[in-house]
Predict the 3D structure of the following.
Amino acid sequence: MNSSRDWVVLSTAAALGALASISVISFYFFFNGKRKRFPFSSSTSNGRRSSSNVVVFKSSSNGSDESREIKAQPLNPFDPSKRKGYLSWDDYFMAIAFLSAERSKDPNRQVGACLVSQNGIILGIGYNGFPRGCSDDMLPWSKKSKNGNPLETKYPYVCHAEVNAILNTNHASAAGQVSSNFVFSLLQFLEALCYYVSMQ
Ligand SMILES: O=c1ccn([C@H]2C[C@H](O)[C@@H](COP(=O)(O)O)O2)c(=O)[nH]1
């Protein structure tokens, strides 16, 4: 360290390094804090079971942010036992419903649905949105109309997540489920109709 110029260069480099570290740490904590976590624990059962052989897992969110902690385990390469804390089937299907809800463009409520057969096969997934082929930007997302015109609200157009899950059914995997799916579709259609009528 010969000259004062060296000291200036060294101090500037140290200051910039410290600034960069602070930025990286703040960035990490900011995004970790903001990220949504799956709002359930691995022991809960969230599927809505019915007398039919199809189960619908539904996630509905309006922005609340409960957290789910996954504990880290020390890894022993000689340990033959299976991993602990893995997702239960129900939480697995709920996680898929939760993830699907994240695709919804409804600013007020994001709903995701995962339709599962009794033997754990995913038949279809969906989220609330406008019908296929309709632009998300052409139809209104409002809950109320200033003119009292229901056609200026989302309700006549939006398809419920469960209905979309049925419409998105993979027909090959749904072989043998058709009759219960049909009954289920009718029930969901009636549910959607009742919901719409109740909003008027
Ligand atoms: O079972 C349901 C109920 C509602 N949805 C969808 C339909 C709408 O996009 C919203 C409800 O909007 P609000 O602003 O909470 O009235 O949720 C559904 O997919 N499935």
